[in-house]
Design goal:
By secondary structure, this protein is mainly α. The chain is built from nine helices and no strands. The chain is globular.
Amino acid sequence: MNPLLILDLTGTFFFAVSGALVALKKEMDLFGVLVLGCITAIGGGTLREVLLGQFPPFVFRENAYIYVAVAGSLLTYFFIEQCKRIQSVILLADALGLGTFVSIGVTNALQANITPVSAVILGVITAVAGGMIRDVLAGEIPFVLKRDFYAATCVLGGIVYLILAGFQTPQKIIIPTVTAF
């Protein structure tokens, strides 16, 4: 299996966990947990593809993303107490998901012949839009609008991606570098 796909699905899983945790904190039912989990996991990438005019978006072409998002949401719902105990692992996975999603967003944007600045913007959208939609649905001010380091890290990751790509660094080096950033 492609290492980027593994990172992408891992990020999808942990973003779903993040969304499900917010839903449970807001005392939502199982449907609310599934909606917030899935929108957090796949919302940003779906928005990116719509903005790029890629129809149907990836989530309708690749069932694995829906399955992984639903699995992350359901596991969180049924094992909420265990999830609360491993919060630091979830935060680490969330950070890795951000880096991965920025990289995927920038890659897809550049492949669509988008300008470098716009590619960084689409990378950030890929990484944070799902969480923003989650927060709005949960009745909160989006986290990314309250913690500037969150978006700034995504912007910096996108810039690092462009710099490395400018030096013709192989993709198999760029993605892990930006993900770890």
